[in-house]
Amino acid sequence: MTASRPPGPAAPQPHLPRRLSAAAPGWTARADVVVVGSGIAGLTAALRAHAAGVGSVLVVTKDVLSAGSTQWAQGGIAAALGPGDTPHEHEVDTLVAGAGACDPEAVRALVTEGPAAVRELIALGAVFDQGTDGELSLTREGGHHRDRIAHAGGDATGAEIQRALVAAIEAAPEIEVVHHAHAVDLLLGEPDAEGRRPVAGLTLHVMGEGQRDGVGAVHARAVVLASGGLGQVFSQTTNPAVSTGDGLALALRAGAVVRDLEFVQFHPTVMYLGPDSRGQQPLISEAVRGEGAFLVDDAGERFMLGEHELADLAPRDVVAKAITRRMHATGRPHVWLDARHLGRAFWERRFPTILATCERHGVDPAVDLVPVAPACHYASGGIATDLWGRSSVPGLYATGEVACSGVHGANRLASNSLLEGLVFSRRIAEVLPGDLEGLPAVAPAGARDVPAGLTDPDHRKDLQETMTAQVGVLRTADGLAAATAHLADLAAGGRDDVPAELAAWETTNLVTVAAALTAAATLRQETRGSHWRDDHPTRDDERWSGHVDVTLDDDGAVAVLFRPTPPSDAPASLAPDAPATSPTQPTPEIV
User: Out of 19, 316, 460, 475, which one is annotated catalytic?
Assistant: First the structure.
């Protein structure tokens, strides 16, 4: 189908830097593959690539190995592991939650390969909770029609997975790890016959002492981005402080296609800490509702009854929208989660981490109602990839939250994110040996564009407040236009005298990602999944069944394009036994 762009309001787009201002590299290193990120996606990619014999593997982490988003995952990891459950049923739930924006082949790969991937994680050393029969203890979360969420430590699943993966990395000394390293930009070679500039490595800024300190260059044949999400674009998020959209921004600057960035999932039950609270907020896992908790308003009304057949366990976009509507109707900044009937003993056994967090903030969930409100949680869109993690830039791969594999569509199904990191990182490692034969080391080409000035870090709070107010849970044409104009001002205000250091690089990346997200949200004039346009309140499959792609043009202006595709959430037409695409087939064009 020919790509097209439905009519929409035109607004001048921000002009963003095509590379960041940074000091000249003071050191160099070489690797066959560089993995950026140390969560479940990055460490799985590194371990599997090493096992596949790709050569030297270098892992780059912005903080320490355990500092990413994976460790904060509470609910668990979804896979068809229980009696009576099937990958087909998991597939149906995933497609329904994705609201017609999933890639069915990607979903099928996820659900069919997922059970083996989880068992492999257990074999690696991750210890999951078991029932009295010795089998995995499985629970249910929003959007699932089966108990298929495996968990560890009650509500410490991410921490246990991270522990096991870090231990495996530490037991593989051949995999080199560079801690406290910020990925500044990709190094690119000369254009190929199609005008695409292949990856030649990346520049890093290492915040430490020793031989590798300050800005350096790592020459590599392939780079795998597993750098996580963009939560710090907003004032309140469940994401850690390191989630500043760095991978998305450097991929855009390198010419990569970013897809469906408008689909940002706001978790419905994040603990409300007051109007002035900023940054990472405490998550109250959906698994709490899976165990019987429910939402009420100030009058004690269970407002999710009648909203959806699954009531309080409806998909996250449904719950977040219902909470927002109730907040607007009552004029209150939050609603309440009622889990008092679960009892203290149950809380201590099943949700010890959440219990401790609530108590730290003066709330005893076994006695008190818990104040909750939606906050930015997960980016369903990201760097567009094929079924094997390949982006539109030769030699650049993406996996995990930074990628748009096609699995999540317009609204990620609960606990599918950890599974996506496992499955698609394994897939990248499967094709890397063959791909590297056609990706010989190339010399970085000279810089072709002069960096614009960096954004002053003092503007970060202003940026976050604008994005929260205008591009948050509820969006309108006027609000998006105001955000676009403000972002254009921030981008135009980049100054050469801003020091080239981490705070400025992060803020500039946040502006870049915010501009791409706002442009995508402006173009999509409908409500679908986690994208809620109050001025276009219904889903419109006739005009908007497809993807929004964002790139930067040669001048750094944001370019958006809508690409129609057939609807994909028709469970009755699914063919559960259809095979996934073979890795030996040619790479599909990313359009």
Answer: 316
337-350: per-residue pLDDT in tens?
A: 999 999 999 999 99
Residue 316 known to be catalytic: yes
Q: How far apart are CA 378 and CA 126, in angstroms?
A: 24
**Collapsed DSSP state (helix, strand, coil) of residue 349:** helix
Q: Is the pLDDT of residue 579 over 80?
A: no
CA distance 556 to 18: 6
Q: How far apart are CA 11 and CA 7, in angstroms?
A: 12
Gyration radius (Cα) of the chain, Å: 22
- pLDDT (tens digit per residue) in 468-479: 999 999 999 999
Query: What are 26-79's pLDDT values in tens digits?
Result: 999 999 999 999 999 999 999 999 999 999 999 999 988 877 667 666 678 999
User: Would you call 433 exposed, middle or buried from its count of C-beta atoms within 10 A (0-12, 13-18, 19+)?
Assistant: middle
Q: What angle do CA 387, 392, 393 make, to 5 degrees?
A: 125
The answer to whether the CB of 476 falls within 8 A of the CB of 460 is: no
Is the pLDDT assigned to residue 208 strictly greater than 90? no
Q: What pLDDT, on the 0 to 100 scale, is given for residue 142?
A: 78
Write down the pLDDT at residue 528: 96
Please count the other Cβ atoms lying within 10 Å of the Cβ belonging to residue 159. 18
If one counts every other C-beta atom within 10 angstroms of the C-beta of residue 209, the result is 8
* Cα distance from N-terminal residue to C-terminal residue, the chain: 11
What are the residue ranges of helices labelled H in 256-397? 286-290, 316-330, 344-350, 352-360
Report the sign of the C-alpha dihedral through residues 17, 18, 22, 24, in that order: negative
Of 235, 222, 239, 269, residue with least CA distance to 35: 222
Longest dimension (CA), the chain: 67
Q: Is-contact 46 175, C-beta < 8 A? A: yes
Query: Burial, 170: exposed, middle or buried (Cβ in 10 Å; 0-12, 13-18, 19+)?
Result: exposed
Q: How do 149-150 and 181-188 pair as beta strands?
A: unpaired
Instruction: Tell me how crowded residue 171 is: count the other CB atoms within 10 A of its CB.
Output: 10
